[in-house]
Queue: 2 jobs
Job 1
Amino acid sequence: MSLRELVGLALSRLGTSRLRAVLTMLGIIIGVASIVALVAVAQGATSGITSRIAGLGTNLLTVTPGSTTQGFVRTAAGTATTLTMDDATALAKVQGVAALAPQVQSQAIVVAGSQNTTTSVVGTTSAYPSVRAYTMWQGSFLTDLSVSAALRVAVLGATTADDLGLGAQSIGHDVLVGGIPFRVIGIFQPKGSAVGNQDDEVVIPITTAQRYFVAGTNVRAIGISVASSDLIQLTKARLTSVLEQRHGTSGTNDDFTIGDQSQLLETFSSVTGTLSLLLGGIAAISLIVGGIGIMNIMLVSVRERTREIGIRKAIGARRRDILLQFLVEALVISVLGGLIGIVLGVAVSALIGTLAGWGFVFNPLTVVVAVGFSLVVGVVFGVWPARQAARLDPIAALHYE
Amino acid sequence: MNGSGSIETPSGTPVIELRGVARTYSTGRLEVAALRGIDLDVMPGDFLAVVGPSGSGKSTLMNIIGCLDRPTAGTYTLAGTNVEELDDDDLARVRSRAIGFVFQSFNLLPRTSALENVATPLLYQGVGRAERLARAKAALETLGLGDRLDHEPTELSGGQQQRVAIARALVTRPALVLADEPTGNLDSASGTEVLRLLHELNEEGTTIVLITHDSDVAVAARRSIHVRDGRFVA
C-alpha cells in the first residue's frame, strides 16, 4: 500500500467522525500553536528590544558619579558631585571614544503661549544627538558656538513640543523655561520609549543650564558613544583608568560608575527567557496531553473496529498493512492538528506582536519544527494502538461483537 | 482455472489436500480436540459442502482451510503450498491470492461503499487504484449490482450485501471460494438466490467449499461430507 493510499484511507475514515477527529486534535493544536507563538514572540521581543536599546544610543557608555559616604551613611548612587566638565574633556581624548556629551539635568515648567508643561531640562553639548541617537524633525541642534556662548536656545523633545502645541512654524519663537525666555531652534523626531520617555525633555546648552538651573560645574552624567561595539569593554577599561587617575581612586573606592547596555539587555532577555520558558512549558504539556488523547482515541478506535480489522485480515491484509493503516491515521490526526496549530500560532503571534509593537516576525523554520513535533507525537503515541490492532488474531477479531 | 473437475473424474492436483489434520486448543489445563485427524482432497472445480452441527469442528476446519488458523498436527497443502511452513504474513498473502471468503454475517466494511468494499482485497495485492475500481465494478456488475456501486452496506438488503460479499470474494480470482453459512442470515428467497449464484460460479469453474449445518443447503453442492466430533462421518 502506498503512502498516498494510506493517507486517503485515513482521511476518509476521519471524515466519517469529524467532531471526534477535531476534539482529538485539540491538544496538538494548542501545543503547536504555543510553539509557533513562542518562537515568534521570543524573536519579535528580542529584535524589538535590541532595536530599542540601540535607540538609546549607539554603543552607549554612561559615566555617572558614585555615592558618597557622609559620616557612616552611604548615600544613593549618583548623589556625589565628583564628575566635572574637566573630567568630560579628559575622557573625550580617550582612544575609542567616538562622541561624548556631558549632561546636567533639572526640572522646570515650560510655557508657550497659553500652554504649559513640566518637563526635564537637559543641559548638554553639540554631541548629544549622536551619543543618544536623536535625529532632528525640525530646525537644528545646539552648535559648539551656542554652547560656548551660553545662549538661551532650546531644542524640544517630540512629546514636549506636542504638549505645548508647537510645530514646524514654532522654530524661532520663544518659550519660557522656568520663567526665562529661550528661543526654540529645533524639535526632535520621536524615538519611542525603551526606558522612561526620551521624547519629553527640553535640551539647552550645558553652560546656560549651569548658569540658570544647576549650581556649580558638576555634571550629572557623561554619555559616551564608542566607535564600535567590539571596543566597548576595552574603552570602558580605559575610561575607568583615566578617571581613577584623575580622582585618585582605585577599584574599591571608585566614586563613579560606567554603565553599558549589556546590563539592560540582560534584564530584558531574562524577561523574554521567562516568557519563552512559560510558553515552552505550555507547549510541552499540551503536546504530551494531546499525544495521550490521540493514543486514547486510537485505542478506542482499535476496540471499536476489531471486526473491521478481522475482515481486513481475512481478505488479505498483513500485519504491516494494519499497523500502517492505524499509524498513518494517528499521524494524519497529529499532522492536521499541527497545521491548524501553525495557523493559530501565527495568528496569535501576529496579534501579540501588534499589541507589543514589535511587529510580526515569521520564521519558516517554525513550520518545519512544528510539523516535526506533531509527526513525533503521532508516531510515539500512535505506534502502540497500531501494534495492538496489527496483533489481533483474525479469527477472534472476526467474531468480536 | 480448470473447470472440468468432478468427483467421478478428478483432474490435476488438488486445490486442498489435508492429511491427518488435527487441531487441539489448550484452555488452561484442559486440552480440547476440535479436529481429530482429517483427510480431505478437493479438486479444482469441485463444489464441496461440509455439513455438521455446531461444536462438530466444522468452523475450526473452515479456519484451517481458510488459512486463518494452523493445524496442530498433520499437513495442509493449499494450491500446492504447504501452509505449515508459512508465517502470519505469508498466510495473509495466501488468503489474499488464493482464497475468497463469504461469511454468514456478510462482514462488509462499514461506512464503505460497495465498490470500495469489493476493491479492498485488491488493495492488499498492491493493485493500482484505477485497476482496482475497474475490476471491482466488473465483479459487481456480474452479480447484478451495477446500480449499487456507491451504496454503503446499511443501504443494501441482506441478499444484496451477500452478493457484494461474493463479488469481493471473486474479484481476486481465487483458487478457492470458502463460504461459511452464506445463507444463515438471509430469508429463504435471498438464500436460494445466493446458492444459485454459487452454483453458477461453480459451473464456470470456481472451486467452492461450503460450510453449513443445514443439509438442505448442502444439496446445492456436488458432494457433501459430514463432520461430527472432529471427524468425518459417512
Note: The radius of gyration of chain A is 33 Å.
Job 2
Amino acid sequence: MARRQGERPRARVAAELAGSRSSRILGGGGAGRSTAVALASSALFVGILAAIVVSSPGWPEVRRAFFDVDQLRRSFPDILDAFALNIRLFLIAEGLILVFALALAVLRGLPGPVFFPLRAFAVGYADFFRGVPTVLVIYILGFGAPALAIQGVPRSPLFWGVVALVLVYSAYVSEVYRAGIESVHPSQEAAARSLGLTRAQSLRFVILPQALRRVIPPLLNDFIGLQKDTALVALIGPVEAFRQSQIEVAGSFNYTPYVATAVLFVLLTIPLARLTDWLVARDRRRQLAAGGAR
Amino acid sequence: MTTPENPSDFLGAPEMSEWLRLEGVHKSFGKLEVLRGIDLSVAEHEVVCLIGASGSGKSTLLRCVNALEPVDAGRIVAGGVEVTAPGADLDRIRRSIGIVFQAYNLFPHMSVLRNVTLAPGAVLGLPRAEAEARARELLRRFGLADKALEYPDRLSGGQQQRAAIVRALAMRPKLMLLDEVTSALDPELVAEVLNVIRELAEGGMTMLIATHEMAFARDIASRVCFLDDGLILEEGPPERIFSAPESPRTQQFLRRIVEAGRL
C-alpha cells in the first residue's frame, strides 16, 4: 500500500514531463495518437459548424454575397496591389516605433530630480496615447495637421497616417520596453556601475540587451495589432487593401472583396503569431534548462 | 572632479600607507539604521575582515565604500579621493575599487571573456586585443582558461565566482571589496574560491572582506573587525579577536560560531 502510494506521483510526474514535451496546441499525450485525435475532433467541430451554416435558410443568399468566386477573381489583383501599401505602412511604422518607443522608455527611467520634466513627459505621453482611440488620432492628424499649412510640413495623408500609428503604438511599445528594463535585476546594474561603467554604458551593454531579449514576444504581439490597424489609415484617404475592397464592393454590391481582404490580413499575421509562440516556448525551455527561476 | 587631497587636516595624522578611511559613516534604510557611526581605516596591502551576524551591516558598509549606496552622514576617502563629497566622480573612483558580490552578478548574456573585457574596453578604452590578452592571462591564472567562451549559466558556482573575481581584477583595482563571496556556494566549492582570495592576499592586494568563514578570516586577515548592530565593536589582529575577544558580544558571537562547528 505504502509502496503504491509512493509510486503514483512519480508516474504522474513522468506523464506530465512527457506531455510538456509534445505540442501544446495538439494537447499532449502519445505523439501519433494525440495528433490523430486532435485532427478527428477538429474535423468534427468544423464539420458541425459548416453544417449549421450551410443548412441555414439564408445561406444561398450569403454565399452569393460573400463567397462569389467570379467576384473574387475580378477584384483580387487590385486588392493585392493595395495590400502592398499596408505592408509598406506597417514596415515603416514598425521601424520608427522601435526607436521612438525605446527613447520614451529610457526617458522614463532617468534618475534624479533634474530629469523630472522628461519623466513626466514620458508618463503623460503613454497615458494620453493609450487612452485616445487610434481612429481619432488618425482623423485629427490626417485632417488637422495638413490644414495648418505650415511651410515644409508634408500634407500627404499617408505621411500623417504613419505619424498617427507611430504615436499611438509607441505608447504601448514603450511600456513593453519599460517592463523589460525593470525586469532586469538591480544587481546587474550594481555590477556594471561597480566596474566604472557610466549609467548610459550599463544601460547599453548590460541592461538593454537582457531587457530586449525578454520583451520580444510581447513586442511582436503589439506588432500584430499594428498590422491590422494599418487599415485605419484608409479613413483619411489612402487606398490600401480595405479601401480598395470598399471600392470593389461599391461597384458590384457584392461583399466577397471584404472576405478576401480579411483573409489577406490573417495570412500576414499568422507567421508573426507563430513566431511569437515559438519564441515564448523557446524562452520557457531555456529557463527550465537553466534550473528554473532566474 | 574631486582632486586627490591630503586628508590630514581633517583626519588627523595620516599613516603613510593608508588607502581607505571611513569616518563616522551612518546609513539608514527608511527607519532601519544599518550603519551607526563606522570608523575604519585600511592600509595598502592590508587584508581587513569584517565579521558579525547577518544584518550587522557588513554588506552595506562595503557598498558604501564604492558608493553603490550613498551614505547619510560621515566621510569616506579612498585613494586620497573623497567618495562622499558632493559631485564626486564616482565612475572614476569605482575604477580603482573592485567589488565581488555574494550572488556573483555576472552578466548572463555575455561569455566569460566578454564579462571580463567589457569594463577595460568601455571604461579604460583598452583596445580589444589588449583587453582580451589581459583577460585571458587572468583567466589562465585562476584556472578558467577553458571557460573563456562559455556563458555563465554553464559554469559551476565556484567557477562563476572566480570569473566574477577575474572581472573585477581586470580593472587592476587598488582595493578589492569581497561581500560574502562564498556564502552562495556549495560547501565543496568554497575552497577553490578561498584559494583565489588567498593568492590575491599573498600578492599584496588590499582587501576589505565581509565573511562568515571564520577559519579563513583567522588565516588570512591582517586585522579583524567585529560588527554588531551597525558599529565596529571590536577590532584587532585575528589571533587576539579569535582567542581573547574583549567585548561580551564578540565572545557570544564566536561561541555560537564554535558551537555550530564553523571554527
Note: DSSP finds eleven helices and no strands in chain A.
